[in-house]
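>> Question from a student workshop board

For tomorrow's exercise we were told to take the sequence and the ligand below, predict the bound structure, and bring the output to class. My setup keeps failing. Could a helper post the expected result so I can at least see what it should look like? The ligand is flavin-adenine dinucleotide.
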Amino acid sequence: MLQRGFDVEIFEQASELTEVGAGIQISPNGNRALDSIGAFETLKQLSCKAERKEVRLWNSGKTWKLFDLGPAGVARYGYPYLTVYRPDLLTVCADAVRRLKPEAIHLNARIAGFEEKNGQIVLSLENGQKVTGDGLIGCDGVNSVVRRLTAADEPSQYPGLMIWRGVIPLDSVPTHMRESMAVNWIGPNGHVVHYPLREGEILNLAATIERPVWDEDAWSVEGRKAQCHEDYAGWHDDVHTLIEAAPRLLKWAYLTRKPLTRYSNGRATLLGDACHPTLPFLAQGAVMALEDGVVLARCLEKYGDVEIAFAKYEKARLVRDNAMVAGATDMTSRFHNQDYRDPEKADAFIDREWSAEAVEQRYEWLFTYNCDTAEI
Ligand SMILES: Cc1cc2nc3c(=O)[nH]c(=O)nc-3n(C[C@H](O)[C@H](O)[C@H](O)COP(=O)(O)OP(=O)(O)OC[C@H]3O[C@@H](n4cnc5c(N)ncnc54)[C@H](O)[C@@H]3O)c2cc1C
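>> Workshop helper replied:
Here is what the output should look like for this input. Compare the format with yours to find the bug.
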């Protein structure tokens, strides 16, 4: 938006810009959006271009190729599939903002509410400060305050799924686990994803498990390795090697919400997890937020009027965002399936659900989208 000549102020509740020390996958459509805002080339230098993605059976380690991430992916989509250390993504994006407007990001600035008055938004911060502007974009995550004030809906829900998250120095795992690729271990009640970050210096571990009840005090807490090993009892030794090698594990609850039928209400709209929080099983939550941002900026440039632009943005994004969320939820029964207990049933299920054609159908529409040229 700053690039297109709009003045923007960003209000962030945290006292400093930090991200969880974990990895994130940025598929070609996300990298196209990053390129559109001038952040792709820098991020590419800091990230890891894994060669391929594989699926492995939880107990035997039997392996199936999922898709190419290297040159074949670039040839097909124009951009690579990167695996990125989250703090690097945040730094690159924040730097891109500060280059254009050094004082744009306000920290310790928690939004408490807003009202629309005389064709303006009056934003109230928790510290009592009031800020006036032409429009408000709520990109305040799954428990968005702006969403609560613009859409009448229910609060976020724990879906009975949680994730163990850790980063592991690559030199602390055996050599056969150091290959530059992303791996999805699939099993009866959980799945384990790992991929290299930072030119292969570290490995990201993201291990999802079904846990019907969340009984921790917070949605994210320090995890105990013994409990993580227990969650993956019977899984391949490589999975336990990774758990053991993690210097630290976080135990993290997923949160979901019902899909929205509207994002925009007058001069306020929503973006990212605030309007389409998702299970990360297509690895598209942040990527969709990036696409949202580019499309929203284009709508403001094209239509000028904030209310019209917000309505056009909603029209351009809502169906795609909600289809992604539904697709990610659908992936649960492919990542976790009781058929994986029986080697023959597992083979049949994987041949059907993870075949090249099935995978293409699930990902092609995501990866080929161009946020710079999509109809608005
Ligand atoms: C385990 C896991 C793995 C994932 N993997 C991937 C992946 O590989 N690829 C991918 O694309 N996505 C992935 N995602 C999803 C991705 O992390 C999210 O979709 C993305 O972070 C959403 O970004 P956001 O900016 O909308 O929200 P957030 O990242 O939640 O940011 C919201 C910001 O708003 C601030 N805020 C909240 N309330 C207020 C307030 N009242 N006032 C001021 N500030 C406020 C918060 O402090 C925060 O900085 C994954 C998610 C998880 C949990």
